[in-house]
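Q: what does this look like with glutathione bound?
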Amino acid sequence: MLLLQFSTSHYCRKARLALGYKGISYQVQNLTPGLHLLKLKPMTGLTTVPVLVPQLDNQPSVIADSSRIFQFLDAYCPTPPLYFDDPQQQTQTLMLEDWLDESIGTATRFVYYQFRAGAGKQIDPSWSSQVVIQVVRRQYGIDQASAELATQRLKIAFEVLQVWQERPYLVGDRISVADLAAAALLSPLALIPDYRENYPWLFENITRIHQLCGEALPPGLSSQS
Ligand SMILES: N[C@@H](CCC(=O)N[C@@H](CS)C(=O)NCC(=O)O)C(=O)O
C-alpha cells in the first residue's frame, strides 16, 4: 500500500497509526504542499491528504480521508479491530472520531500554528519555515482571535478525554478509532510547553499509543520521553 501524505500532517499521522496498529506494511510518498492539488484533485476529487492507494486487486484504487481509510483498513484486515460490534460503543466511537476530526483536529491546527508564529518561533526561525507557517495561517484564517476560540474548544476536549486518566481506552476495553484519532490529532500540542505542563497524562497516552502502533513519536515527545 502507498500512503500519500504531508510528513507533518496530524491527519496523516492518524492514518499511519491505523496502518501500524494493523501491522500492515506500506510506503509513504511525501507530497509538496501547494503542488499536491495537481495530483490529488484528479485522483480523489478532494485536495486533502492522507490518501491511501491500496495497490491491491479487487480493492478500491484510491481512498481519500482518514476516516474512510480507517473503514477500509478495518474491512481489509479485521484483526485487531478498530470498531465495536456493540451498537452503543460503536456509536460512541464514531461520534468521538467525527468530533476529533472535524472540531479538535482543526482547533489543534489553529493553536499550533499560532504558537509557531509567536512564542514558538525559535523552534525553527528559518525564513523557509516561517513562510510555510504564514501560508498555512493565511490558508486557514489563523490569527489571535481564531486561535483563542480554538483554545476554548481544546479545553472542552481535555474534559472529554479525561477518561484516559482513569483507564487506557476512551471507549470499551480495547483500542479503537477514538484512541488513535485522539493520539494523532492532539499530538502537535506536544511542542507547546503549557500543554505539556498542564496535561501530562495526555502525552503519556499519546506516547503509549504511538509505541503500540510502532509509529515514531511526534516532535516534542521524541527527544524527551
Ligand atoms: N477530514 C480530512 C482532513 C485532512 C486535512 O485537513 N488534511 C490537510 C493537512 S493536515 C490537508 O491536506 N490540507 C491541504 C488542503 O486542504 O489543500 C481527513 O480526515 O483526512
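Residues 6, 9, 11, 47-50, 65-67, 101 surround glutathione (CB under 6 Å). The domain at 87-213 is CATH 1.20.1050.10 (Glutathione S-transferase Yfyf (Class Pi); Chain A, domain 2).
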